Automatic annotation (TrEMBL):
Protein name: CP12 domain-containing protein
Keywords for the protein's UniProt record, in alphabetical order: Signal
Organism phylogeny: Eukaryota, Sar, Stramenopiles, Ochrophyta, Bacillariophyta
Cross-referenced InterPro entries: CP12-like
Organism of provenance: Skeletonema marinoi
Pfam families, alphabetized: CP12
Secretion signal, residue range per the UniProt entry: 1-21
Length: 143
C-alpha cells in the first residue's frame, strides 16, 4: 500500500510534470520504522515505477515474479500494472485523426483497370468457345 506521503509526493510530481507519466522514472520513498522490541530503526523503501511502454512493464513484472515468486503480492501488482497499461494503449486515440488521413485511390483504380482487362480477355475466350460449340452442333442453350 502506498503511504499518504508518497501519494502526495507523486501527485505533486505529476501535477508539475505531466509528461513524466510517460517516461521511465523511479520514485523512491524511504520511511523509517522503529522496531518496538529492540528499539532499532529499519528503513523500508517503497518504489513507484512509471514506464515508457507496456514491454518495459512486462519485463519488470517478470523480474519481480522471478525474484519474489509468482504468488507474491508484488507479482500480482506488477501484472495489474501491465493490464492497466495495455488497456490504456487500447483506448488511446490515433496520433492523426482519420479525417486527416488520406486514402490513395490511385492503386485501387489501377487494380480495377487490370481486373477489367483480365475480365475482357476471359469474356473474349468464352465467346470464342461458345461460337465454336455452336459450329460443332451444340444446341441453342450454348448461345
Amino acid at each position: 500500500m502506498i503511504s499518504s506521503t508518497l501519494r502526495a509526493t507523486l501527485l505533486c510530481f505529476l501535477a508539475t510534470n505531466p509528461a513524466a507519466a510517460f517516461t521511465n522514472h523511479r520514485i523512491t520513498n524511504t520511511a523509517s520504522h522503529t522496531n518496538k522490541t529492540n528499539n532499532h530503526s529499519s528503513y523500508r523503501s517503497s518504489e513507484l515505477n512509471l514506464y515508457n511502454s507496456v514491454e518495459e512493464a512486462i519485463g519488470e513484472a517478470q523480474r519481480v515474479c522471478n525474484e519474489q515468486g509468482g504468488d507474491s503480492e508484488a507479482c500480482k501488482v506488477a501484472w495489474d500494472i501491465v493490464e492497466e497499461l495495455e488497456a490504456a494503449d487500447a483506448h488511446r486515440t490515433p496520433a492523426t485523426p482519420t479525417s486527416q488521413q488520406e486514402l490513395s485511390y490511385g492503386p485501387l483504380i489501377m487494380s480495377l483497370d487490370l481486373l477489367s482487362a483480365k475480365i475482357d480477355r476471359k469474356m473474349d475466350e468464352l465467346n470464342k468457345l461458345s461460337t465454336s460449340l455452336v459450329e460443332s452442333g451444340a444446341g441453342p442453350e450454348v448461345e
